[in-house]
Design a protein that fits this description.
alpha/beta; 2 domains; four-stranded antiparallel sheet; binds adenosine-5'-triphosphate; binds magnesium ion
Length: about 350
């Protein structure tokens, strides 16, 4: 069966007269029906650019330079604005970073539910009101009647985000996409909102793509994890496997930068390259502790399956843990790391 969402060789550029930023450089992934997928990576690695391309909200100077985005087999990249609006809402529910940007300040919340529903199907006021009350209940709003009669500016950030989640899900879209939906909220509220999105997707059986820095939420609600670096997916696989046995050195660095008790990913050492040109060779070359021969400097590795369902964009496998444990002082030198790799995974075998 074809996946629900299929992103194929997606390239996104921000092109102005002065410069071009190559923000997304050949992203590939798919999401199956009912699957919940997390997306992580440092700031500037192209998560939002990818998300906005998927939901058709990339604004100039951003544009999809090439690639395809298929929802249920239909390529969204060539669609006009009207058709895209229809898909957003009924096909894809979107929860943005800032809920107030998604709510209309001059319309009562009830009217906004009506607008969303009626953009996609004919429905009477009473029916829409019932659905809205049920949705608001579902997102944990205790007095949904009062909220329906009010305006966005009367809501706290956390409440506004709950309303936006209810609006994004009222049409029961098969896919829910959320881009760091808790930025700017109190820490405890952040957790509640992320829990809520995870739970809503799970209980309603929708697929989910969630961009977050919260590794606890990823572990709890995302069956699969995508790790992005410099506009590419460098690792993808079952969440528990990627978290326990990362196959890409970047994922390893990212995870080791998580404070022992903390849940949030922070930046690993170094920086995502400024993508004013596409790097030659592996995009992670400069920061890689396992980089090897000239191949790493001259070719860009594509994702390859390192174990069933687990993919990593590497030419070589990093030294195994046991090799490191057996000879820690040696394995830390690059030459030894290279030797270990050569022994375990010959170059040029993908
Ligand atoms: N409007 C724009 N004009 C020019 N460059 C842009 C624009 N928007 C984003 N970019 C660039 O595109 C790259 C990817 O940005 P993007 O917002 O997708 O990163 P991100 O992974 O979502 O980061 P964050 O975690 O901070 O949200 C960055 O280098 C960024 O500077
Ligand atoms: Mg972003």
């Amino acid at each position: 069966m074809a996946p629900l969402l299929e992103v194929n060789d997606l390239h996104v550029e921000f092109k102005s007269r002065r410069r071009t930023v190559y923000a997304v450089n050949g992203v590939n992934f798919s999401i199956g029906e009912g699957e919940t997928v997390g997306m992580v990576g440092e700031t500037g690695c192209g998560k939002s650019a990818t998300i906005r391309a998927i939901i058709g909200l990339l604004r100039p100077p951003g544009r999809i330079a090439s690639g395809s985005i298929r929802l249920d087999g239909e390529d969204l990249t060539g669609l006009d604005a009207r058709r895209l609006r229809r898909i957003r809402g009924a096909g894809i529910g979107f929860v943005p970073q800032n809920p107030f940007g998604a709510l209309n300040p001059v319309l009562r919340i009830e009217r906004q539910f009506r607008n969303v529903v009626r953009a996609h199907r004919r429905a009477g006021r009473g029916r829409i009101r019932e659905d809205a009350l049920e949705m608001l209940n579902g997102v944990g709003i205790a007095d949904p009647e009062r909220i329906l009669g009010g305006y966005a500016h009367e809501l706290s950030g956390g409440m506004a985000q709950r309303v936006v989640i209810a609006l994004a899900m009222v049409l029961d879209p098969p896919l829910v996409v959320a881009d760091e939906p808790t930025t700017g909220l109190d820490l405890t509220i952040q957790r509640q909102i992320l829990d809520l999105i995870g739970k809503m997707a799970t209980t309603r059986g929708s697929s989910m793509l969630l961009v977050t820095h919260d590794i606890g939420v990823v572990a709890q609600y995302c069956s699969r994890l995508l790790v992005m670096y410099a506009g590419r997916v460098v690792e993808a696989g079952p969440t528990n496997i990627v978290l326990r046995k990362p196959a890409h050195p970047y994922t390893e660095a990212l995870l080791s930068a998580v404070p022992r008790r903390g849940r949030r990913l922070i930046a690993a050492a170094g920086a995502v390259p400024t993508l004013l040109s596409r790097p030659v060779g592996c995009y992670y070359y400069d920061r890689c502790r396992y980089r090897g021969d000239s191949r790493c400097a001259t070719e860009t590795p594509d994702l390859k399956e390192v174990s069933p369902g687990h993919w990593a964009a590497v030419f070589y496998r990093k030294p195994t843990m046991s090799a490191q444990e057996q000879a820690p002082e040696k394995a830390t030198t690059q030459a030894q790391a290279q030797e270990d790799r050569d022994g375990d995974d010959a170059p040029g075998t993908d």
